[in-house]
Design goal:
This protein has 5 helices and no strands. By secondary structure, it is mostly helical. The chain has one domain. The radius of gyration is 16 Å and the shape is flat. The model has no long low-confidence stretch (mean pLDDT 81).
């Protein structure tokens, strides 16, 4: 499960910013943040990387998944 609140982001993008769905889905997260008035993040430090790893942990791949059977 992603760490994004997609319904809220879609409401902001489509209703608040009046973007078309196509334009909304073509934006990068950084572009959307800028359009919403949030400052773009600077360079990532160790703490930022650890926060990102906690928010989006890697899941171990099973042999079946690697072979395309899953």
């Amino acid at each position: 499960m992603s760490g994004f609140d997609w319904p809220a982001l879609m409401r902001l993008g489509l209703s608040g910013l009046r973007l078309t769905p196509d334009t909304f889905w073509r934006l990068t997260p950084a572009e959307l943040r800028l359009m919403l008035g949030q400052q773009a993040p600077g360079t990532m430090d160790r703490a930022g990387l650890q926060d990102l790893m906690r928010a989006f942990p890697d899941t171990p791949k099973t042999k079946e998944a690697l072979d395309g059977r899953e």
